[in-house]
Design goal:
The chain is an alpha/beta fold. It is 29% helix and 19% strand.
């Protein structure tokens, strides 16, 4: 169950922080920063929402022969995505080794895993946490998710309010979720 399609509502909550990253990085880079969405196709809500908001985005997905563990775009400045949960440790290790900012949407229960805590102890990991357990499929979610970040947020822990949890009558499926139906 590693292929969950992130609803746009969860991408929307990080947009203000993406804007801040652009404002910080653009003068340093002398160009618009490039966001890498390493677990996404062009139909992903990350790619769609970020692009629709005027940000430069490169994306890659294993289904297109671009395995995160063997592929890196020529140019990118920070990464945003929803990685496969089963590979979380290897993903975080590789991201940290790049030395570039990132924001990865994950089940917040990962902070209870000893191996994750051991890895995160050596880094100043940040958390952007929605105030609701957001649904990916229209049913009430059994888990809370948030963005685990590195060098991305203005402070280490930020809670964000969401109007609804994306379930029941408020459900707005991700484009890819609709396509799979």
């Amino acid at each position: 169950n590693d292929e969950l399609y992130t609803p746009a509502k969860l991408v929307d909550i990080i947009l203000a922080f993406v804007k801040d990253m652009y404002r910080i990085l653009k003068p340093v880079l002398g160009r618009d920063p490039i966001i890498w969405c390493p677990f996404d196709t062009e139909d992903s809500e990350f790619v769609r929402v970020l692009s629709d908001n005027g940000y430069k985005v490169v994306f890659s997905h294993i289904s297109e022969g671009k395995d995160f563990f063997n592929y890196e775009p020529e140019k990118w400045d920070f990464a945003i995505s929803n990685p496969p949960f089963s590979k979380k440790m290897d993903i975080f290790k590789r991201l940290l080794n790049f030395g570039k900012p990132f924001a990865m949407l994950c089940n917040e229960m990962i902070i209870n895993y000893q191996e994750v805590a051991n890895l995160f102890t050596n880094y100043e990991i940040q958390l952007l946490a929605p105030d609701k357990k957001v649904s990916f499929n229209g049913k009430t979610s059994s888990f809370a998710c948030g963005y685990f970040c590195w060098k991305f947020l203005p402070r280490d822990l930020i809670f964000v309010h969401m109007e609804d949890n994306n379930s029941g009558k408020y459900f707005v499926p991700a484009n890819l979720f609709r396509a799979k139906k």
